[in-house]
Write a structure and sequence with these properties.
Layout (H helix, E strand, L loop, with lengths): L1 H41 L2 H26 L17 H14 L9 E5 L7 H9 L3 E5 L2 H10 L4 E4 L9 H9 L8 E4 L6 H6 L4 E3 L2 H12 L1 H11 L10
Parallel strand pairs: 1-2, 1-3, 3-4, 4-5
Helix pairs in contact: 2-3, 2-4
Pfam family, one: Response_reg
Organism: Bradyrhizobium xenonodulans
InterPro entries: CheY-like_superfamily (IPR011006), Sig_transdc_resp-reg_receiver (IPR001789)
Length: 244
């Protein structure tokens, strides 16, 4: 008799357990249905598409940065056979770190004037910036650059240093900007031997020799705090003996 009662109790316990979890699930669905509906309504098709575009742009930018760095960075035609290039793995890893660290919104919509007499050598760098949403205008000379600056607004200037036989064309261009009160950050992108301290003294925001460094420097330049600090420094008269 006792054994039969025990078996009945055990069977009832299993039956209750079998119905308990579905009941709990039904309660949770009933309890949180409004929240789930709100979440699904906010997660619209447009949002999903935006996530996809962002991811796709980051992949494309990362690939372009890695290709640029593997090609030798700025002024690739000057790269000597003895100079070391980064390994494929390290270039890809660095490019991915850069694109992951910089949200697309930081650069999207920015307008860059790129001064270089051989712009084809920067095609991967320009592709990477385009994937970040940057609009690029090319000038092949100082004269073209000054003309473009008088016609349209820009957020940043990227310049090479040597053009033709002029070893310091970048510095000459920089000197012509100051009296015109063109208060834009100027970044030198070059593999030429260039002392960054002197370049900053002369008014440059910074110097980059690799695409990955260039992207980071551009992001820093367009931030308000960095720009204000840079412009205060640049507005001071150049003094060869004074290190900023």
């Amino acid at each position: 008799m006792v054994e039969n009662i025990a078996k009945i109790i055990e069977a009832l316990a299993k039956l209750i357990s079998a119905f308990a979890w579905p009941a709990v699930g039904a309660y949770l669905i009933w309890r949180f249905t409004p929240t789930i509906k709100d979440f699904l309504s906010n997660l619209s098709e447009g949002s999903l598409k935006a996530f996809g575009v962002e991811a796709s742009a980051k992949r494309a930018a990362s690939e372009a940065i890695a290709k640029a760095d593997l090609g030798g960075g700025a002024d690739k035609t000057k790269l000597k056979p003895s100079e070391e290039r980064p390994s494929v793995e390290s270039a890809i890893r660095l490019a991915e770190l850069v694109t992951d660290a910089i949200p697309r919104r930081e650069l999207q919509g920015k307008r860059v004037l790129w001064v270089d007499d051989r712009p084809d050598g920067n095609r991967y760098e320009m592709l990477a910036l385009a994937e970040f949403g940057v609009a690029i205008t090319i000038a092949r000379s100082t004269e073209d650059a000054l003309k473009l600056l008088s016609e349209a607004p820009f957020d940043l200037i990227i310049s090479d240093m040597k053009r033709g036989d002029d070893e310091e064309a970048g510095y000459d261009f920089l000197a012509k900007l100051l009296p015109l009160h063109i208060n834009l950050p100027v970044i030198f992108y070059t593999r030429s031997k260039l002392d960054e301290t002197i370049a900053r003294q002369r008014g440059a925001f910074g110097v980059a020799t690799k695409a990955s460094d260039l992207i980071i420097l551009i992001t820093s330049a367009v931030s308000r705090r960095s720009f204000d600090s840079y412009w205060k420094r640049r507005s001071r008269p150049f003094d060869q003996g004074n290190l900023f």
